[in-house]
Design goal:
The chain has 91 residues and is mainly α. It has a domain at 24-81. Helix content is 60%, strand content 0%. The protein contains two helices and no strands. It has helices spanning 23-45, 50-81. α1 runs antiparallel to α2 (50-81). It starts with 22 loop residues before the first helix and ends in a 10-residue tail after the last helix.
Length: 91
Amino acid sequence: MSKTRSTDDTGRLESRPVVPALNGAKLELALVVAVCVLAALVTLRLPLQPLQEVALLGLVAGLGAGWIIVRTRRVVRGLATRPERHSDGSQ
């Protein structure tokens, strides 16, 4: 049985399958968020000017966001090149 997620405007469930291939990207997103929080805590302890703190946090967040974008696009592109399989096993 296929899992579904989300609802449309009428409140009915969409029959969109959950994509397990994105689980790795979700894990990496959690890791990037943890690194950003850690960077925020580190900048609180460093004797930096406010502009330097913002620049450092912006750099860390930008690199993390870029990584997540590249990783997710790579996964989605890999899914798009796979042949689609139906529930009866045919293509």
